[in-house]
C-alpha cells in the first residue's frame, strides 16, 4: 500500500473508536491511583453514559436522570444556590453582625454595559462556572490590633465554582483561584484608598490542596498594612464539604447543614495568598468599580 493510501486510511478512521480507547486507558491509570481519585474522575470527567460508579460512592448529590446537564441548566439552578447561601452558618453570623460587616454583591452594582466586559462579573459568570455573583461582607476601621491602620479592612466572600472551570478533569483550575483572590483582595483594599481604587502590583498564591468543583467556597481576606498609596493584603480560601451541583434540590440537602460549616472536618483550605495593591495616580480618570 502506498504512503498516500496509508495516510488516507488514518484520516478516514472513525474518531469515536480512538477517543474511547484513549479515555479507557486514562481511566485505568487513574483507577490505579486510588478509589477516591477514581470517584471524582468518573462523576466529573467522564460522560454519564460511560460512568458506572454506584450512587453510594459518588461524592455528589444524586440528581434525577431527567434533569438537563449542568451546562444546559436555566437560571433556576443559580436561584437554588442563592437560596442555600442563606442557610450557611457563616453567612447567618455575618448577617447578624450587620453593624460590623456590610453585605454587598459588588458585581451586581456594576452597570450592565460595563459588567458584560468584566472578567468575573461577566465572562466567568453563568451555568457551570460561577453560578451566582459572589457575596462579600466588608468590615472597615480599627479592630483592636495595634499593627493595623485605621484604613485597614477585612472581607469575607462566599461563591460557588461549577464544573466548567477545571484545569485537570475533576479539579478547579489554579488560575481561577488566583483570579478570585485578586478580585476579593481588590474589594478589601478599596477601603484603604480615598479613590476606592487599587491595582495589583504583586500577587503570590500558595496552593495547599486540590480544589474541587461544585462546591461553595469561603475566601477570607484582611488588609494587613497601609502606607500612603500602598496596601498589603492576605487571605485564605476554603471549600465547604457538601457537593452542590447547580441542579440541586435545596430541600434535599437541608437535613445535613453541618456540611455547610467552615469548621467541619471535611472542609478543605485549598490556598493562601498575599498581595500588594497600589492606588494609581490616575485613579480620578478610572471607572470606580469598587467605590464604597
TrEMBL record:
* Chain spans, region Disordered: 51-75
Which species is the source of this protein?
Penicillium salamii
Name the CDD domains for this protein.
PaaI_thioesterase
Q: Which InterPro entries match?
A: HotDog_dom_sf, PTE-AB_protein, Thioestr_dom
Report domain Thioesterase positions: 170-237
Pfam families registered for this protein in UniProt: 4HBT
From what superkingdom does this record's organism come? Eukaryota
* PANTHER family referenced in this protein's UniProt entry, alphabetically: THIOESTERASE DOMAIN-CONTAINING PROTEIN-RELATED, UPF0644 PROTEIN PB2B4.06
Name of the protein described by the UniProt record? Thioesterase domain-containing protein
Q: Which residue ranges have biased composition labelled Polar residues?
A: 61-75
